[in-house]
Amino acid sequence: MSIRRIDVGPRMSQIVIHGNTVYLAGQVGEPGGNVASQTRDVLKTIDELLAQAGTD
């Protein structure tokens, strides 16, 4: 089974695909926002990363 990495950085990859599982890392909201706006930011980013990985 292969491992595929997308958006590889010096410490981690934003997306790692192993088999039928997609792992995401490092998703945080914009500093200073309230919980609702940070949650919207994170969920939007997750949707974008999952689209990059070819899934939803």
Task: Give an account of the 3D structure.
It contains one helix and three strands, in the order βββα. The protein is 32% helix and 29% strand. It has a three-stranded antiparallel sheet, with helices on one face. Strand 2 and strand 3 form a beta hairpin. The two termini are 21 Å apart. The model has no long low-confidence stretch (mean pLDDT 93). It has one domain. The longest helix is centred in the C-terminal third of the chain and has 18 residues. The protein is an alpha+beta fold and 56 residues long.
How is this structure best summarized?
This protein is 32% helix and 29% strand. With 56 residues, it is an alpha+beta fold.
Radius of gyration: 13 Å
In one word, what is the shape? Answer: elongated
* pLDDT averaged residue by residue: 93
Largest sheet: 3 strands, antiparallel
Explain the layout of strands and helices:
Elements: E1 3-8, E2 13-18, E3 21-24, H1 35-52
Antiparallel strand pairs: 1-2, 2-3
Features:
three-stranded antiparallel sheet; 56 residues; 1 helix; elongated; single chain; 29% strand; alpha+beta
